[in-house]
Recover the amino acids of this structure.
């Protein structure tokens, strides 16, 4: 069966067809004649296209299509005694029974479709028992007195019948059929051309057409588009050589049969219907699909030649490749489909020249060039809804860190998604082979300056991959307040914005378009069609990509079911707005208020909240999407949570807050979510970039700052209005809020209340720093719907709408507000500075258990555990004893090792490195046998007991989860920067000797790489090197997939001016593949208590 | 809906709006009922406006609820500047002004001032909005107007059907309804068969159709007059809406 022809809801053609009829029928209002036997189109025909006048299926009240409303308007016009607007009637094709009577030599088996130029039926030619398609032309097409319309039609049909080409639908027969018409009761003359219908019979094609392909797939694979184009050119060349121009090349006329053979249909028809006998375009004709019609063919009086067909092929080629019809100044194919061959742009360009002299002069010429286009280098990566799967994107910083020693983990968060996921001050650390933290260099230094009380934030340039480097928006110094306004066109209206991490460029969602704006120059960098209003937006850490989320509903479904509806999450490149990937996820209708998105800090992972139970009471569903996967990679439902915001904690964890408790979701364990904190019942929350603080709006208690590690409420923001909307927290700790403001305008009797950026608080102290006054008096300021904060903490941007629009049409306005200078946290009050804790210090009894073993390793008790810890990391000399005693121990540990050309563990008193889990366990087993007591690796929990943070940890959680929440507590206490003697960390010596950056600025432990064990003072329990030197294996799996073992304690090459980026906090875990060692990883053993 | 004497309170425009007059009738039962009617009849265009303005759907729902409730209580919208005379524009302007002061409310338990039907209607609005909404470039105002027109026509047809049902002529209405929706001409319809099915002669069918068209026009007039002050304004209102649906 034919698939449905591309539904032509273009009223222009059919209306034209009928217009003549209407005008000639004189609205005498006496009803209409009927044609006996002619029924209106059967609505129950399963193969019927949706006729123009069928009501859109409705689940609720109403049910009128715009068409019907228009008809009703027309009928109703008389009610107000205005002139009746002439509404053209549509032509209703005959029923199959009726047609059967007209064409007895065929057995009409069914109505297939109704297209722009008539109706098509399926039948069997009785004489030859051959399946055919019969196309009926409406008789009203031509009624301008031109003689011999039927004659010309037959001539064309004869010419076409002579065509024999595999790429052209064969015509078998054509003619006129008598309508069985009969007037009744003096009604008005039926509009018809002497009661005849014109028909022609053609080859029946079982398959689809290009219009349907494009409607289904959006973009076609380039090879396929090229193949189709080539075949069409071939067919055209054949026809042109015989003097026939098609004149109506368009996707719905290009059939593809079941074998994939391309067949061009409806040759020559347009010549009959739309042109006079000399082929000149009539003045009164409306062509079917203007997008495909060559410019010269639109002009009445033009002699159309084969180049008009070429134009149409060019349009179609573009559409097949990009999914869009090229209109106006359209983007080149290579901009829409990044991997496409640039030659295609040139071909389309040449084919679509307005001046036909500049086009290809022949189809052969065009075909040759199309064929010459090479296959694209990469596999097609189109819409994920197709069957094509992307290969997993190569992740330079993904989880598969085969050669990497460990993974960086940082507290990376996203701001409110109901507003926008802006670019807070995020730590991006690109992992590299040596585990060096390399982030935006300037960005890294700033917050430490803030925290350490330095005076100014540097505004260095941040690079965004794919975009030219530009300095951030220049904000002159001054008090917090409005700096400037950027006026955008009032239409389409601006509803969402998001700053890029360069604090210079900004995404703007206007209507269904998305644009990138340069805030300094106020120019538009690019603008693309986003396919629909963005419900939520997220920008990746490095600014190279952004994602947005919109509903994609199947509006044509006969039975609309909410369960079937989908949302589309699209990932685009910020450099040009092109689509990287999109995912279609099911969404429970009416249950996602704006959705929410967050983008993971590393790799290419997106988390989106996509739906909840329809009643709004059931679980909320989140999905995690990885670039390269067509399906979500993780999906979990959280009960009793109406969270709107999703913050990235790290790649495996997302924090969702909203109504009710804040929930921590673990991607590694989809389905599992734990209550992070009982936050307030409001919708707005934000996490501070250093991860220490969560700020929420709590109806009962006001705006509050929480400690993310202890999950305690720290302080309220003083004087914050209960009804304020939280916007974001800057890197420097400034909390921006939208709130009520009242404008007293002397021109108005009553004060106008409106929503505006209201105030800025210091999250460290809770004090209000500034109240932002409204920008303009005398205007009704209609609030802001979107806000985003700059990475460099100098400004934030909001959207304002002026109502009424200002002169010049400025309804959409982007406002830039200055933030206060970097804030100094009140150290006495900051966060989780409660230090290390043990349940108790070792008792006398405990201390008696301390011992030294045969290798000279000393062990001490650790309260909270049943083991004794070796006070140092296993040394090379210890391990050497094992290797000497046990054959076939891997000798990797013994070989000279270098980190950045600097020796590591050169002498036996240094910790052993380059051992894997098995080596450690082997050592323990050997030692246990040797000494008759059980030695083993510590558990992750035991290690926490040793370092003094066990009491604040959840014993049941995975190490990866426990390590997710940053607590600024270190093995030496809470001081930052580390005091002298804190441990062997990534210090100035490391930098000086090896050049590694960043390091803990100003800290020097004297060792570039490893230090002999116990070089630094021990902790309160007498244990050394819990901070630094080498990472230490524990016995627990790191993740739920059990591919990595937990390692603790960080090493000599971890360092950063910022505490939470230095990777040296006591809470920090990493995962080491269990079968591998590393140049900075060793181990420490524990001894179980003797019974 | 019988016309009740309008109650002006100085702030509210005094017009012949039957619906609005009922809205602030002294008898709370009357006014509540009127609000219900208003909500069920015209909430959808307002909802569309809110959504297109950028409110997420829960927010739109809340705002609409609250707005309707205030309407009932006749909270001031700064009506000194209100466009008099047309419910359609009055509501829109009122909603716009309301939005200025609107705050997202996290209250889970709103004071329910509407009937369950009206609430259900608003709850269903999002689904309908997503299904129907087209034309991303349309401004909220235009979308509102267009939806208003559709709601108007829905109402007209409902009233028409009710009227025919009262006359025990549902079948006739159902049979001729598609003709009406098609523009009122029997062309393309098998009127002979239609007449047969109804047990009428063809001529009688044609007459009935004419009658139906006139009934429709009257229902249309009536419905529009609910929302404007006088016949002149009714014509303007009709034309303003018709222009949104003009076909080429």
């Amino acid at each position: 069966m034919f698939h449905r022809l591309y539904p032509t809801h273009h009223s222009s053609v059919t209306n034209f067809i009928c217009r003549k009829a209407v005008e000639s029928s004189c609205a005498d209002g006496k009803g209409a004649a009927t044609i006996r036997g002619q029924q209106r189109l059967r609505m129950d025909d399963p193969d019927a296209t949706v006729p123009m006048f069928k009501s859109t299926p409705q689940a609720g009240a109403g049910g009128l299509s715009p068409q019907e409303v228009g008809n009703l308007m027309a009928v109703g016009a008389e009610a107000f005694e205005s002139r009746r607007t002439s509404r053209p009637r549509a032509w209703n094709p005959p029923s199959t029974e009726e047609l059967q009577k007209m064409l007895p030599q065929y057995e009409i088996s069914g109505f297939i479709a109704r297209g722009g130029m008539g109706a098509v039926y399926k039948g069997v030619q009785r004489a030859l028992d051959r399946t055919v398609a019969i196309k009926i032309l409406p008789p009203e097409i031509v009624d301008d007195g031109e003689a011999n319309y039927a004659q010309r039609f037959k001539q064309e049909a004869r010419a076409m019948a002579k065509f024999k080409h595999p790429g052209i639908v064969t015509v078998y027969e054509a003619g006129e059929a008598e309508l069985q018409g009969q007037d009744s009761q003096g009604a008005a003359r039926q509009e018809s051309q002497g009661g005849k219908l014109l028909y022609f019979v053609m080859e029946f094609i079982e398959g689809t057409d290009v219009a349907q392909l494009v409607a289904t797939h959006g973009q076609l694979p380039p090879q396929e588009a090229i193949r189709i184009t080539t075949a069409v050119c071939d067919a055209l060349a054949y026809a042109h050589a015989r003097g026939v121009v098609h004149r109506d090349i368009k996707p719905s006329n290009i059939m593809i049969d079941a074998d994939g053979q391309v067949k061009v249909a409806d040759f020559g028809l347009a010549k009959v219907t739309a042109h006079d006998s000399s082929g000149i375009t009539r003045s009164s004709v409306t062509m079917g699909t203007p997008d495909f019609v060559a410019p010269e063919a639109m002009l009445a009086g033009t002699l159309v030649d084969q180049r008009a067909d070429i134009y149409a092929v060019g349009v179609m080629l573009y559409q097949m490749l990009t999914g869009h019809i090229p209109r106006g100044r359209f983007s080149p194919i290579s901009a829409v489909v990044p991997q496409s061959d640039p030659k295609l742009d040139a071909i389309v360009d040449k084919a679509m020249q307005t001046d036909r002299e500049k086009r290809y002069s022949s189809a052969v010429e065009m075909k040759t060039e199309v064929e010459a286009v090479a296959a694209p280098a990469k596999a097609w990566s189109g819409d994920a809804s197709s069957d094509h799967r992307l290969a997993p994107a190569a992740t330079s910083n993904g989880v598969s860190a085969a050669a990497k020693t460990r993974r960086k983990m940082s507290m990376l968060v996203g701001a409110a998604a109901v507003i926008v996921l802006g670019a807070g001050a995020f730590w991006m650390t690109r992992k590299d082979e040596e585990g060096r933290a390399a982030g935006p260099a300037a960005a890294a230094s700033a917050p430490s300056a803030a925290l350490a009380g330095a005076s100014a934030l540097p505004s260095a340039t941040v690079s965004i991959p794919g975009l030219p480097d530009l300095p951030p928006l220049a904000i002159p110094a001054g008090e917090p307040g409005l700096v400037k306004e950027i006026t955008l066109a009032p239409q389409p209206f601006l509803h969402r914005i998001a700053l890029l991490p360069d604090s210079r460029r900004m995404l703007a969602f206007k209507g269904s378009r998305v644009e990138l704006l340069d805030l300094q120059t106020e120019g538009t960098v690019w603008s693309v069609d986003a396919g629909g209003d963005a419900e939520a937006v997220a920008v990746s850490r490095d600014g190279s990509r952004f994602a947005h989320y919109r509903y994609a509903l199947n509006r044509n479904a006969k039975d609309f079911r909410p369960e079937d509806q989908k949302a589309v999450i699209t990932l685009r490149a910020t450099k040009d707005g092109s689509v990287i990937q999109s995912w279609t996820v099911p969404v429970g209708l009416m249950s996602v208020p704006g959705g929410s998105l967050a983008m993971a800090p590393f790799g290419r992972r997106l988390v989106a909240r996509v739906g909840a139970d329809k009643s709004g009471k059931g679980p909320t569903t989140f999905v995690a999407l990885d670039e390269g996967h067509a399906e979500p990679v993780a999906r979990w439902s959280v009960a009793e949570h109406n969270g709107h915001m999703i913050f990235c904690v790290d790649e495996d964890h997302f924090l969702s807050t909203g109504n009710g408790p804040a929930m921590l979701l673990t991607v590694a364990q989809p389905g599992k979510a734990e209550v992070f904190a009982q936050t307030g019942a409001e919708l707005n929350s934000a996490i501070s970039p250093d991860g220490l603080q969560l700020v929420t709006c709590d109806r009962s208690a006001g705006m509050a700052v929480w400690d993310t590690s202890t999950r305690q409420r720290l302080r309220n923001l003083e004087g914050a209005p209960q009804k304020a909307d939280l916007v974001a927290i800057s890197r420097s700790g400034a909390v921006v809020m939208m709130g009520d403001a009242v404008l007293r305008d002397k021109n108005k009797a009553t004060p106008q209340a409106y929503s505006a950026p209201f105030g800025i608080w210091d999250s460290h102290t809770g004090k209000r720093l500034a109240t932002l006054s409204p920008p303009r008096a005398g205007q009704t300021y209609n609030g802001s719907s979107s806000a985003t904060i700059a990475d460099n903490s100098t400004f934030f941007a909001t959207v304002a709408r002026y109502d009424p629009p200002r002169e010049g049409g400025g309804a959409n306005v982007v406002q830039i507000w200055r933030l206060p200078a970097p804030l100094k946290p009140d150290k006495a009050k900051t966060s989780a500075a409660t230090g290390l804790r043990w349940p108790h210090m070792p008792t006398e009894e405990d201390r008696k258990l301390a011992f030294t073993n045969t290798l000279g390793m000393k062990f001490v008790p650790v309260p909270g555990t049943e083991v004794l810890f070796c006070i140092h990391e296993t040394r090379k000399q210890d391990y050497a004893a094992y290797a000497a005693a046990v054959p076939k121990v891997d000798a990797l540990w013994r070989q000279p090792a270098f980190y950045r050309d600097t020796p590591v563990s050169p002498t036996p008193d240094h910790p052993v490195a380059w051992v894997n889990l098995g080596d450690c366990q082997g050592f323990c087993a050997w030692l246990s046998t040797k000494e008759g007591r059980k030695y083993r690796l510590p558990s992750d929990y035991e290690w926490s007991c040793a370092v003094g943070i066990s009491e604040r940890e959840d014993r049941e959680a995975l190490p990866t989860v426990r390590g997710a929440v940053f607590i600024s507590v270190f093995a030496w206490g809470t001081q930052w920067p580390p005091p002298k003697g804190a441990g062997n960390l990534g210090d100035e010596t490391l930098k000086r000797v090896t050049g590694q950056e960043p390091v803990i600025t100003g800290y020097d432990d004297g060792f570039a790489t490893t230090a002999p064990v116990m070089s630094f003072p021990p902790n309160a329990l007498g244990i050394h090197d819990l901070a630094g030197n080498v990472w230490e294996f524990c016995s627990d799996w790191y993740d739920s997939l059990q591919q990595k073992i937990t390692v603790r304690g960080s090493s000599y090459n971890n360092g950063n001016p910022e505490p939470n980026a230095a990777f040296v906090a006591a809470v920090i875990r990493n995962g080491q593949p269990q079968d591998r060692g590393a140049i900075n990883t060793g181990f420490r053993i524990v001894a179980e208590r003797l019974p | 809906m019988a016309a009740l004497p309008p109650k002006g309170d100085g702030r509210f425009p005094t017009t012949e709006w039957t619906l609005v007059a009922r809205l602030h009738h002294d008898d709370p039962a009357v006014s509540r009922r009127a609000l219900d009617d208003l909500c069920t009849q015209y909430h959808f265009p307002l909802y569309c406006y809110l959504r297109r303005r950028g409110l997420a759907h829960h927010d739109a729902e809340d705002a609409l609820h609250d707005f309707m409730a205030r309407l009932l209580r006749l909270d001031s919208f700064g009506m000194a500047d209100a466009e008099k005379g047309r419910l359609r524009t009055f509501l829109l302007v009122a909603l716009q002004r309301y939005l200025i002061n609107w705050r997202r409310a996290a209250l889970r338990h709103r004071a329910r001032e509407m009937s369950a039907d009206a609430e259900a209607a608003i709850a269903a609005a999002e689904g309908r909005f997503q299904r129907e909404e087209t034309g991303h470039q349309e401004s909220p105002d235009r979308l509102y107007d267009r939806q208003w027109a559709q709601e108007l026509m829905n109402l007209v047809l409902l009233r028409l059907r009710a009227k025919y049902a009262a006359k025990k002529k549902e079948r006739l209405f159902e049979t001729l309804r598609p003709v009406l929706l098609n523009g009122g001409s029997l062309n393309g319809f098998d009127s002979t068969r239609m007449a047969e099915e109804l047990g009428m002669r063809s001529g009688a069918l044609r007459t009935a159709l004419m009658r139906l068209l006139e009934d429709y026009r009257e229902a249309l007039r009536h419905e529009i007059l609910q929302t404007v002050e006088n016949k002149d304004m009714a014509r303007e209102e009709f034309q303003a809406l018709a222009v949104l649906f003009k076909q080429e």
